[in-house]
Design goal:
The chain is of the alpha/beta class. The chain has 12 helices and 7 strands. It has 2 domains: 58 residues; 141 residues, Glutaredoxin (3-Layer(aba) Sandwich), CATH 3.40.30.10. InterPro entries: Thioredoxin-like_sf, Thioredoxin_domain.
């Protein structure tokens, strides 16, 4: 057997022969045999990932929000929505009195009492949701916040945007409207440049990108405007209906303001067929 000088490090047992050159290469350029893991290594890696998920869930316990279930009662849901959208302009006591007085019209005492109890619980859920940042379109600055919200909130809609892309601004204007009336869902946005890990992990190459999570699971991706008619002046209700199909919101709600984007007028004569590519 040929012997190699120890100082040269060329022997088959020497690290320099097999590892040094490949270690400096990007992972995707390494030979397949270097990327292969033994069953034990795979088991250790899986346990490590599970531990990280557990630790993250423990870290976000303080962020956990109350269950915001749909009451499945149209009357109660309507009053709760009214309470959520008007409480900012009317005193809570005046609004509650107005809503409760409408229930007094029912002759069935048992029915009225049942609905009053449901209303009180629904109002409490609305207040809890608002305290947790619902009914706002929040801008977050880092990926950790995005992951925390995704783990701690039952329903989350995330917009990955670029500040200079006009279509991202259009999506922002629609999501801001939707967020104000859908108190059951958290709406957030993050600049794509501030989320490099998530952009790569989620394979985002075109902006705007809207991702919907329910119970920490990705349920829908809306990339560009291809699924929104591929035009800039689509109505808010179109995006709202898409979110409903994904279960990212509970139900459609009436809007008092115009359904058109705030950019509708200036974009009527500036239609574009392409979304913006993010690199």
């Amino acid at each position: 057997m040929t012997s190699f000088p120890a100082s040269h490090g060329f022997g088959p047992r020497k690290r320099g022969y097999q590892m040094d050159l490949t270690n400096v290469q990007p992972v995707e350029n390494k030979p397949a045999w270097i990327s292969m893991k033994s069953p034990l290594e795979k088991e250790i890696a899986n346990e490590y990932e599970a531990l990280k998920v557990t630790e993250r869930k423990e870290d976000t316990q303080d962020y956990n929000e109350p269950e915001l279930h749909n009451s499945n009662d149209p009357t109660v849901d309507l009053y709760a929505d009214t309470y959520a959208t008007q409480a900012a302009t009317e005193s809570d006591s005046e609004l509650e009195d107005a809503l409760f007085s409408q229930l007094d019209e029912f002759d069935d005492t048992a029915y009225r009492e049942q609905r009053l109890e449901m209303l009180k619980k629904e109002f409490a859920r609305v207040e809890a949701a608002k305290e947790k940042g619902h009914m706002q379109f929040l801008t977050v600055e880092n990926e950790r916040e995005v992951m925390d919200f995704t783990l701690s909130s039952k329903k989350v809609v995330i917009h990955f945007y670029h500040p200079d892309f006009i279509r991202c601004k259009i999506i922002d204007s629609h999501l801001e409207k939707i967020a104000k009336v859908h108190w059951e869902t958290k709406f957030i946005r993050i600049e794509a440049a501030n989320a490099p890990f998530l952009v790569v992990k989620l394979g985002l190459k075109v902006l705007p990108a809207v991702l919907c999570y329910v119970n920490s699971q990705l349920v829908d991706k809306i990339i560009g405007f291809a699924d929104l008619g591929n035009k800039d002046d689509f109505e808010t209700s179109l995006l709202e209906f898409r979110l409903l199909k994904s279960s990212a919101i509970d139900r459609l709600k009436e809007e008092s303001s115009s359904n058109k984007s705030i950019y509708h007028d200036e974009l009527q004569n500036n239609q574009s067929d392409d979304s913006d590519f993010f690199e």
